[in-house]
């Protein structure tokens, strides 16, 4: 029995070391987010944009988004707003046309957002657009969004992700936690990757991709339910860096309930696994033969996030079993199990809450109304583990609708975020 306990103890330490190395890399990434963001300068408005909005039953929220786009601090003749209704049972198309957008009814079967974007791209390519900007129908765009993307494009940027802010962080603890998660992605992931000179991650909405990049990629060819991560992988593999443009701000509606957040996160976890299955081997092969090894290794690290989560669960199980094997009597086992589990949960709660408080401070987001989201955040992250493990067993392969209802106008969003590094 002693050798059995020694084996499990060594295995526990090995898994812990692997998790620590992984966490250390992301700690370095997070620290690099304090470097001053890249300055794209000011450039005259010259970029011609096509703004694409995939919409499914978004009649209640499409109007404020279109209004925020029609009132951009950018010449109206240099951009068109295209709403692409798909699988709608409401009056999304009529509402979009009434607010002044061009409507392109999707006439092909749709299982994912990427299919909607592919349909739209094929219909409007060749109309002289320099770049495409993608929004979700529940978003609001900052008045300077297109101007900031123009600055980036005129500086030579061909793929860019903007700052994904929240329009309803105070509605519920769930919307608060989701908002904190996106602020972390903005600051620690995309900001950190920019600080290291690596690719940011296309994050679903509020991003730009040039027409020439799409042409080089053979069109909009994403096949998974995580079209954003898949586009990121395609760009990195093609040698195209995704730039971080934090002054191009999008306000996104967050889920109000835990059930809605599960639907959303199950799609993300399933999509990450799909993208990993498709591109992980290619990235590893390219890394062995090409110079951009750090960029490709970074992509691999992102695609392996579900594996990291599974390893964390396995590591906890091994730690519990190892602790039990050290017990002298069976009567000690329950107390050891409860004590070890409680210590791990306390550690997770402490560091998750401290990290959330740090990002609230760094991004200037402190408000007493976010307290529920802050206190719930550790549990929000912990609840991701069964979602990911379930995705290993059964993946979500269709874009499930999350009904959006928060019809918020731009002036109600409050003070602007600070852009200090």
In short:
By secondary structure, the protein is α/β, with parallel strands linked by helices. It is 54% helix and 11% strand.
Mean pLDDT figure? 88
The run of helices and strands is HEHEHEHEEHEHEHHEHHHHHH
The CATH C-level name is Alpha Beta
CATH superfamily: Spore Coat Polysaccharide Biosynthesis Protein SpsA, Chain A
**In the residues, how many domains can be counted?**
1
Main sheet: which strands, in order across?
3-2-1-4-7-6-8-5
> What separation lies between the terminal Cα atoms?
55 Å
Class of secondary structure makeup: alpha/beta
Walkthrough of the structure:
- The protein has 421 residues and is α/β, with parallel strands linked by helices.
- Helix content is 54%, strand content 11%.
- Helix 9 (258-289) runs antiparallel to helix 10 and helix 11 (305-325) packs antiparallel against helix 12 (333-362).
- It starts with a helix and ends in a 28-residue tail after the last helix.
């Amino acid at each position: 029995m002693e050798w059995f306990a020694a084996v499990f103890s060594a295995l526990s330490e090995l898994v812990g070391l692997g998790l620590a190395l992984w966490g250390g890399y992301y700690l370095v990434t997070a620290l690099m987010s304090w470097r001053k963001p890249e300055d794209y300068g000011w450039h005259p408005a010259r970029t011609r944009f096509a703004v694409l909005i995939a919409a499914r039953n978004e009649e209640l929220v499409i109007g404020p988004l279109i209004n925020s786009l029609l009132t951009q601090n950018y010449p109206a003749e240099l951009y068109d707003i295209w709403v692409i209704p798909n699988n709608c049972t409401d009056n999304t198309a009529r509402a979009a046309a009434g607010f002044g957008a061009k409507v392109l009814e999707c006439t092909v079967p749709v299982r994912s957002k990427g299919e909607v974007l592919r349909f739209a791209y094929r219909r409007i390519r060749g109309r002289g657009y320099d770049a495409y900007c993608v929004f979700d129908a529940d978003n609001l765009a900052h008045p300077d969004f297109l101007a900031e993307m123009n600055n980036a494009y005129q500086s030579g940027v061909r793929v860019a992700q903007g700052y994904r802010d929240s329009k309803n962080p105070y509605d519920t603890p769930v919307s608060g936690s989701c908002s904190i998660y996106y602020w972390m992605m903005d600051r620690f992931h995309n900001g950190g990757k920019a600080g290291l000179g690596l690719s940011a991650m296309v994050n679903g909405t509020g991003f730009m991709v040039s027409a020439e990049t799409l042409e080089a990629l053979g069109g909009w060819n994403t096949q998974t339910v995580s079209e954003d991560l898949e586009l990121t992988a395609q760009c990195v593999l093609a040698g195209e860096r995704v730039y971080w443009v934090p002054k191009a701000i999008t306000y996104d509606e967050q889920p109000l309930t835990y059930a809605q957040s599960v639907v959303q996160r199950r799609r993300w976890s399933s999509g990450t696994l799909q993208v990993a299955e498709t591109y992980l081997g290619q990235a590893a092969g390219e890394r062995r033969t090409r110079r951009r090894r750090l960029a490709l290794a970074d992509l691999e690290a992102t695609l392996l996030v579900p594996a990291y989560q599974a390893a964390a669960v396995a590591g906890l199980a091994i730690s519990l079993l190892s602790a039990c094997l050290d017990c002298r009597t069976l009567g000690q086992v329950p107390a050891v199990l409860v004590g070890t589990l409680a210590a791990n949960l306390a550690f997770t709660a402490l560091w998750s809450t401290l990290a959330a408080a740090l990002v609230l401070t760094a991004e200037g987001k402190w408000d007493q109304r976010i307290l529920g989201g802050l206190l719930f955040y550790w549990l929000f992250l912990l609840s991701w583990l069964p979602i990911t493990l379930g995705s290993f067993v059964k993946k979500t392969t269709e874009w499930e609708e999350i009904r959006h209802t928060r019809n918020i106008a731009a002036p109600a969003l409050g003070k602007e975020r600070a852009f200090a590094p």
